[in-house]
Design a protein that fits this description.
By secondary structure, the chain is mostly beta strands. About 10% of the residues lie in helices and about 40% in strands. Strand 1 and strand 2 form a beta hairpin. The radius of gyration is 55 Å and the shape is elongated.
Length: about 375
């Protein structure tokens, strides 16, 4: 009796236990990740077959499961997107870092754009006809012009330098450094019986400074002070240089050495040293001195080529006479007016170097005053 009751209880227990296990919900698996679908081709429409699929399900004592499937003509599967990798920095070790030039978030480095600065045009024309009256700013020129006349023989040379402070202001310095002449002309014994010419090289003692200011492109004003060392003598030199250019070939100008007025003893000359020697001798003998010279001169330029120019000059040199009459220094003791004329060629060997040669008369009334003149100019 007891055994049958125990078997019945065990059977009921197994049945209850099996029913509870069967009724317990089945453990669901984590869904497998599905890659995003590709974008449907243009014109194919949305994913098809959603309504053509079937749902099946089943359950039993061993468990329950359900799955939904759908099919259609559309493609719902797609390939996996590859991750985008960042490009590694060019300076992995940080060796190119500049602590004085930080570059971080919000501190983007901007390119610095250099602003061009306008430069002054300092070009000096190769053509003599196109050159201005004054030099450009910061340009210098050094020139010499040795010249001579045949009868009576005499020769001199002066070193002239000029510098452009601005395109309209120029300063100049002149030094007459040597002269060759017959000393007997100075003391008045030349031509006397038994007196032979004595030619020597005499060191010059005349120098001067001048300033030229350009008022307009075609006219300026020039003021200079020539000095003579022993005896001390000086004068005032005035000029009104003008120049007109016609096209690229022609130019005319003049009046650059208009007036030289005696201020003390006599008016020094930069053209012939013999004139200064006569002035010094007149001062020694207390003879009358010239009051100066008034000079009208004009020149013309024909530019045959960019390098070659033909230049001619003509003018009148008027001696202002002595304070109380008599001869004057600068004309070898002769008063009156001298007419001079000269013509020649100038060739620009380089843009910074000129060489020229001219022939002419210092006084047409004296045929022996004919002679050559050389001109060399260097610009830096």
């Amino acid at each position: 009796m007891s055994l049958r009751r125990l078997i019945s209880i065990l059977g009921v227990s197994f049945l209850v236990t099996g029913s509870l296990v069967a009724a317990a919900p089945a453990k669901k698996k984590a869904p497998t990740p599905v890659a995003p679908a590709k974008e449907p081709a243009k014109g194919s429409g949305a994913t098809k077959g959603a309504g053509s699929g079937s749902a099946t399900g089943g359950g039993g004592a061993g468990g329950g499961s359900g799955a939904a499937t759908g099919g259609g003509s559309g493609d719902t599967a797609g390939s996996a997107v590859q991750p985008i990798e960042d490009t590694p920095p060019s300076d992995m070790q940080g060796t190119n870092e500049n602590p004085d030039d930080p570059h971080g978030v919000g501190m983007e480095k901007k390119d610095i754009v250099a602003v061009p600065v306008a430069k002054k045009v300092t070009a000096y024309p190769t053509e003599e006809a196109l050159r201005p009256i004054t030099l450009p700013a910061n340009m210098s020129e050094v020139s010499i012009a040795p010249h001579m006349q045949f009868s009576p023989f005499q020769s001199s040379d002066a070193l002239h330098a000029r510098y452009g402070i601005t395109p309209k202001v120029q300063v100049g310095l002149t030094y007459l450094f040597a002269g060759i002449y017959d000393s007997h002309i100075v003391d008045g014994t030349a031509g006397m019986p038994g007196v032979n010419p004595t030619y020597k090289i005499h060191s010059g003692k005349a120098f001067g400074v001048d300033v030229t200011v350009l008022l307009q492109n075609w006219i300026g004003v020039r003021v200079g002070v020539p000095f003579y060392v022993s005896p001390v003598a000086f004068s005032l030199e005035l000029g009104a240089p003008i120049k007109f250019t016609f096209g690229d070939k022609y130019a005319i100008g003049g009046f650059d050495d208009l007036l030289n007025i005696t201020l003390d003893r006599f008016a020094p000359s930069f053209y012939q040293d013999i004139y200064n020697a006569i002035g010094a001798e007149n001062d020694r003998t207390h003879s009358q001195q010239s009051r100066g010279h008034l000079r009208f001169s004009l020149y013309g330029v024909y530019q045959q080529s960019p390098q070659l120019a033909i230049i001619g000059r003509v003018g009148l040199d008027n001696d202002l006479g002595a304070a109380s009459g008599g001869g004057g220094a600068g004309t070898a003791g002769n008063t009156g007016t001298a007419t001079f004329i000269r013509a020649g060629l100038q060739y620009t060997v380089r843009r910074y170097f000129d060489a020229g040669l001219s022939l002419g008369w210092d006084d047409l009334a004296t045929l022996g005053s004919f002679g050559p003149r050389l001109n060399l100019a260097l610009r830096i």
